[in-house]
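1st attempt posting a full record on here, be nice pls
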Amino acid sequence: MDISVGELSARLAEYARLTEDLLAMREGIDKIRITAYSADGLVTVTVGGRGELIDLELDPRIYREPDSTALAGSIAGTIRDAAEAAAQDAARIAGRVTGAGTDEGVDPLFDPALRLLDGEAERSRRLWRE
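the predicted structure (as tokens):
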């Protein structure tokens, strides 16, 4: 099967658009910064769009009760809370950029891009069959 120059140009334009969309999604996720506070206000964390820890602040009052297990739990829980909020922001960005939505259970970093690529693959199969 031969493909016309026009069809090939259209496919290349679609791939260029896909590349731009994925770069915009990555840029948006990279800009996310979420700050969360522990219930007692002694732990403050900031995470990025991929859930990575960017900053950790411990209030000096944590030393009043030397319970390292409780402190570790508070830090880990606060990081999880911030990472979850960052994942939700990332899902919103990915959904806006790709039009894939932000359904429950969606992996905000990969599912929207994979859905978009699935659509591209289906369009390619149709094009090559025609």
